[in-house]
Amino acid sequence: MRYEILGRLQVNDGQRAATIGAQKVETLFAVLLSQPNQIVAASQLMDEIWGERLPGRAAAGIHVYVSQLRKFLSRFTGPDTPVITTAPGYVFDPRDGDIDFQLFERLTRLGKKHAREKRHRQAVSHFESALALWRGPVLSGLTLGSLLSGFAVHLTEFRLECTEALIESYLALGRHRELIGRLYSLIAENPLREAFYRQLMLALYRSDRQADALKAYQSARLVLREELGLEPCRALQDLQRSILSADYHLDRFRQVAG
Fold it and tell me: I need a surface site. Which of 31, 133, 197, 201 has the fewest CB within 10 A?
């Protein structure tokens, strides 16, 4: 069984996927899932659900929402609830289930380990499996308070790191031509992410498109100056100079891997 938050919050037992529907119960569940096997204080749950508009019977409301959550989960777990009451709040114990964001983080770290060891085919396999877990934005459709917003930002950043690492491994395998379209799309979605410009410039250069590689640098420079008043980072500037001088080190993986 898998608890999934990389997209709409749902529980998936391999045969069916079910969502809660009730926003406050869903928020409570999301907070518990974001901190598995840790005590989440009832006050934290109240803050995330109501913020500054705390009702007079908030504590009673939390008890009701926990009861509703347990009833929902019993369809998958039976009477042995994974939501445990422990002062001063509650603990979510996934037991025999997985939480998708934890699996995503494990796969990404394994991919990075393989990449450091120059085992790029294995790294690509782990990175692709990690990214395949995403079905949309973190907890899409749910209004996020401060705690869940920070959690979503962390995971979104980690997703970008995984994507960057995946592309680095593809480049190391000489698969630069197939990356070009993907990198243009990533830059359109993340126009201030300088790493994607660097990877695009390198992929274009190794695909015998030196002029396009230099145009990509100019695009990065224009965006950064207009949005932030900054020049491109040292890595981008160094790469531009290497492309202008046709540095032979850039041709190391010019061949296309089979």
Answer: 133
Do residues 40 and 33 make contact, with C-beta atoms less than 8 angstroms apart?
no
Is the N-terminal amide bond of 88 cis, ω within 30° of 0? Answer: yes
Give the range of the structural domain holding residue 257, as residue numbers without chain letter.
Answer: 175-258
Query: What's the mean pLDDT when you consider all of the chain?
Result: 94
The radius of gyration computed from the CA coordinates of the chain, to the nearest angstrom, equals 23
Strand blocks (E) in the chain = 2-4, 10-12, 17-18, 40-41, 83-86, 89-92, 98-99
pLDDT above 70: residue 256? no
| DSSP code at position 257 | P
Task: For residue 189, give both structure tokens.
Answer: 């979605």
Of 62, 97, 132, which residue constitutes the final position of a domain?
Answer: 97
CB atoms within 10 A of CB 216: 29
Tracing tokens 């996020």 back to the chain, one arrives at: 144
> Last residue of some domain: 51, 78, 97?
97
**pTM, two decimal places:** 0.92
